Amino acid sequence: MEQNVKNTVIKTNPGDNVGIVCNASGLQKGAAVLDGIILREFIPMGHKVALENISEGKEVIRYGEIIGTANQEIKPGEWVNEFKINLPVPPDLEQINYTQPKSENFEKLEDYTFQGYRNPDGSVGTKNMLGISISVQCVAGITNYIVEKIRKELLPKYPNVDDAVAFNHSYGCGIAINAPAAIIPIRTIKNLAQNPNFGGEIMVIGLGCEKLRPERLMPDGSTESENSILYLQDEAFTGFEEMIDGILEMADKHLQKLNERERETCPASDLVVGMQCGGSDAFSGITGNPAAGFAADLIVKAGGTVFFSEVTEVRDAVHLLIPRAETKEVAEALKREMKWYDDYLLNGQADRSANPSPGNKRGGLSNVVEKALGSMVKSGSSAIVDVIAPGEKIRKKGLNFVATPASDFVCGTLQLAAGMNMHVFITGRGTPYGLREVPVIKVSSNSKLGDRWHDLIDLDAGPIAFGQKTISEVGNELFHLILDVASGTKKVAADKLGIHNDLVLFNPGPLT
Amino acid sequence: MEQNVKNTVIKTNPGDNVGIVCNASGLQKGAAVLDGIILREFIPMGHKVALENISEGKEVIRYGEIIGTANQEIKPGEWVNEFKINLPVPPDLEQINYTQPKSENFEKLEDYTFQGYRNPDGSVGTKNMLGISISVQCVAGITNYIVEKIRKELLPKYPNVDDAVAFNHSYGCGIAINAPAAIIPIRTIKNLAQNPNFGGEIMVIGLGCEKLRPERLMPDGSTESENSILYLQDEAFTGFEEMIDGILEMADKHLQKLNERERETCPASDLVVGMQCGGSDAFSGITGNPAAGFAADLIVKAGGTVFFSEVTEVRDAVHLLIPRAETKEVAEALKREMKWYDDYLLNGQADRSANPSPGNKRGGLSNVVEKALGSMVKSGSSAIVDVIAPGEKIRKKGLNFVATPASDFVCGTLQLAAGMNMHVFITGRGTPYGLREVPVIKVSSNSKLGDRWHDLIDLDAGPIAFGQKTISEVGNELFHLILDVASGTKKVAADKLGIHNDLVLFNPGPLT
Lengths: 512, 512
Known about the structure:
2 copies of one chain form a homodimer. With 512 residues, chain A is of the alpha/beta class.
């Protein structure tokens, strides 16, 4: 689609002094772009061109925000890359004041529905799966074996059940279970099992001698441990076959109940959509993320729930988020999570400059500030109603900041634990991200990737860069795609191909 | 076998003031045991009975060493459990002086051989496998898919190749790659691929935009990256099918070479045996671990290599290990690794009391000191020739301390990276531990487990507790079993059943 699109450079905000080269093969020296500027050197796709003279020490502006200061004079038409920009200091959390935003009378969206599995607790699933928790890594070899057996021997009897999955992890023993940070992985495992896609059927396989007691993984107030917890070391099992039979028997009881679930019409307000980006490039902030943000606003207007996450990728834009906090408590919670992460990184002798990745940089993202500004766009423009600490479940509908590392599968795992029933993943460089537990809609930020990975990408936001589609058009497409996939009438690429990654726990505590 | 064995209590050292109840159902109040002592209460199997009056503040002695002080008066015949013992302070690393041990003229063992796969670098494999490394977690969904495909479509063409395996992990991006601790996971991934069981055939699947560059995972000095590294983001691949074809093509080249490997007669000095215990009980230190230690000495006498590990489980016995260091440098290295771990735990607001696990305690191990004393026995009695930091490869034959967390699969993974070709795992409570990459011989420390888990346990050391077999008899059995399994003539339970756990990386650094 590029052949008719000559020398495209995008300025994301009228105040910017840099623009983004959109052409797939970059732009050559001598090319004329915005405002009659002539390129002084070759600039690759996604990278920045100076639109005015930026003298040494002067601010480089993108998205109307400072992304750093020039460490040398940059002439109009020059390539503005990571080597020419110094990283600014991050916003001082103590210095950001909060004023409650005026409550906007959002036009409410009604009449949008999807076909979901309504659960007794009111949540709605988009898949119907048996989820098996483990209390300790030692049993993961057995759960791999058992899940294969369930798929082959039991699932054919239960046509309404989509799949079975074990949440294998490397936690549960050989860990400091009394360390302050232990609460994070423990509540994550517990809340994962309560994700709406598992229909409230809890099944935990324990070993017996582990530090993490399986009882701690049961829902609060639950008394059903007899049909929910099984220990491999139980003296009732003589040998491997009896163990396996015992597990299959327990699984069968849960599958019978899950098989009774049927899809019913649910309002879009039952959507819980986790937004995430990974393998980002400079287009992510122009195309994919703004389109996701547009869809996020539609979901919130429809009364639904949206998550955005990735602490290190919003840290440098926190001064833009705090004014969006619905209450002072939410603003304080935002600061608290940022502060926790600042300390966590410092403790590991790292800092935020560890992000972005080399691929982000090759994609044109000079530093974490530019990445953050492009990343937070996917939250749309709604008020932030709550902040969810790592591993916690959501409490409110609306836009939630779910505090997670940016590490893709850790973020996805924590969003699952928080209760998401749909996942949107925006990528510029391309990653084959897929989760078995929830449908993942993959959005490409540029058509070069969208075209090449035609069977791995679900929606291409690339045409936005060339004005062939608007942000609202792609945002609307995404909204409707979310409803269709949530209903099970459309399948995402990851599910069609059967490409699924394992969940990854966030364990900030030490091993022993 | 217990019916003929009445009231058995074992004293592990003449100086001990406690003994261990061996009877599977424990011993009842009133039972007469060693030295005419009458039990004052029921004491479960594996737990300790006071053999003399231990007044408050007095030392409790097991293995001839102080395992703590009584926090109340304990009368002869009383149960000595975790609640009655205070944890002593650990040996002060600075205060342990080193004197070079007299070099003993060990009788050399010759004539023992096994059938192994000799590699160009001199190492010897006990399996013949294709190992696929990944540079980042994002590609793990693809490697799972590809390994299945290799097993079904390629392996039938290569009858000399046992299996294919992907070393999936959750590292490579979303991590602080410049944090000081990053070297640990990086060299672990790199050295895993060089384990003798993979025949030097290196194959790395990368994404393209990750922080961990696949080139860093190639062996030092290697120039063969063309046939060894593949990026999913490579523009040569249009879509999923082409990616898969590309990976299969690369795998096929490596499989052709692996298929040329044949077993040949190798001296026992080519064995590299990793010793580990997990789910320990009080018998581990009386039966399984001493038998493993006996086998360890035989292997060292035969010129082979033995690993023992688990820093937190030897920390409290380090004053007994340092005198066994072959040189002052080795003694210093031991102290350095212990110090590193002390700091690591402190940094995570944890300490060594996080070990033992509840199951260890139910099994009779009161605290980490008692656990450590029983744990280090599996190192046998040889001099310690070298200390290997987490993720490093071994440099010397003989007994090596491979510094790892005690967490079972993290320890196993680091022992694999260090180069083990055989694994011995001693358990008292029972765990279904298995690794695909190397044969794991599971030894039970008590016959109650050995009998019940008849098809999961490879060797029962339980009869030692009742004098039905001696430590040297079971140690010899284990030595010969190691040779048979290494030769491929005997299969371990985990391989027969197909129960294998995933490897787990040790990443002490932060996520971003």
